[in-house]
Design a protein that fits this description.
Elements (H helix, E strand, L loop, with lengths): L2 H13 L4 H13 L9 H15 L1 H29 L6 H27 L3 H13 L10 H4 L12
């Protein structure tokens, strides 16, 4: 299958309304197979490069991402405390931190809401699943390339529960 056919497959999956997890799996396959992605902007090519690193070294990249997020949330919380407790903003850095975190928080809320409303999984149960799955990520990427992509994907509750 050539590059044009692959892009058509991806576009068809978007047009058919496939769940985002299925589109993510298709894109992960493109990245793992080093398919040409010349149509992408420079910024998108950088994103593909980062995803390739994550798919090749899921455990290390996930741990690094967790560390970065923890640092950013701590920084945001300290700046929030400065505002709340001093009543003034000492610098405008809080806007830059908020710009980084707000999309992640919004996405996280979406995932929590979807897990609860569609699958009946409580926020604490979802957090436990993600923590367990993260601990099971392989050191190096292998044939199970979707494990990282499926990290936040809730499993459907069985009919017997």
């Amino acid at each position: 299958m050539d590059s044009e056919e692959l892009w058509k497959k991806y576009a068809d999956s978007v047009m058919d309304g496939q769940p985002s997890i299925e589109r993510a799996k298709i894109m992960a396959g493109f990245i793992k197979e080093n398919r040409p992605m010349g149509k992408l902007s420079h910024v998108d090519q950088l994103s593909v490069h980062k995803m390739r690193r994550a798919l090749e070294n899921p455990h290390d990249e996930f741990a690094k991402t967790q560390q970065i997020l923890a640092q950013e949330f701590s920084r945001f919380y300290r700046k929030r405390n400065l505002i709340v407790h001093s009543g003034r903003v000492l610098d405008h850095d809080i806007e830059q931190t908020a710009d980084k975190l707000l999309p992640l928080v919004a996405n996280g809320i979406d995932q929590i809401f979807i897990a609860d409303m569609q699958y009946g999984i409580s926020p604490t149960a979802l957090a436990a699943k993600v923590k367990f799955r993260a601990g099971c990520l392989p050191e190096k990427g292998g044939p199970d390339e979707h494990r990282l992509v499926e990290l936040l994907e809730p499993e459907k509750k069985s009919d017997s529960t």
